[in-house]
């Protein structure tokens, strides 16, 4: 029995946090069964890259991280064609190497269908294998920055074939799952939320502080709308002074300039990119998580915050609000700074109504690593020898 994952996103030397949540899923599932992950990374057609093949083994998880050789030409359009050809050729060689090592897998699981899904569809068709697609992108709203609806015809057609020929399609949120189901005319899309490592992200009784701590954790990309958050908190300081906003994310001179311009230096603290497990300590010391994205699927930080017992303020973008209710947070429309201000005001004034222990207990039952890993393995059962599981 072999389960093969083909991951379009996965941590590598160029992007150590790229698809790290997929890696966490792989590690969790590997506690229940053997998994091999193949990630042929795309550094970009403007980068001179050299072939490198890495194999990382950790108990039942084996990761194949492959860097393929590419030397750009002076012609940009030609580079795009040559690059994609080199990517496909490399993938074919890697899959051949996999077959030599392990034989045919029982099931192939694609994470993020563009580009690995295109490879998987053709290869699985040739090998008479079923494949599962887990889509993690948030592009299925017309207002999304990288909206599916603005993609070229070839992209839409390729993605449609990958989705429609999959044995199972999954997503981490109900909202995006419904969009995918309608767009690609699928009979169903299975929802499996992001998992949380509750060894780190767990309830811890808050320490007394004279300041209320709002926490924001993200990549600080434009779709996270940190500018809207900062503008809102600039107004909040006119009404309340006993609070602070801690922003966990990569250092940004642009964000630092905005903080200074809005006279928030005494209230807002920007950390830097930190390891996954270190985020838990910030969550356990905070009072509430704040997200205000223009575009989302269902971000891991929401599930992690809930497992720590944090109430969450979030926009309703994508599936960000799918797991938020009156008992564990407040939902606001994307971009509505007045609504966000009201939510922050409400959080400060009515914080006592949120039962942090109950929030954490409920979240752990839904999102803890063993729970989600078991749901993923259940997807495979129709395709595996059940005596082996």
UniProtKB/TrEMBL annotation:
It comes from Hydrotalea sandarakina. Keywords: Transferase. The lineage of its organism: Bacteria, Pseudomonadati, Bacteroidota, Chitinophagia, Chitinophagales. InterPro entries: Glyco_trans_1, Glyco_trans_4-like_N, Glycosyltransferase_grp1. Residues 202-357 form the Glycosyl transferase family domain. This is Glycosyltransferase involved in cell wall biosynthesis. Residues 63-199 form the Glycosyltransferase subfamily 4-like N-terminal domain. The keyword Transferase applies. Gene3D superfamilies: Glycogen Phosphorylase B.
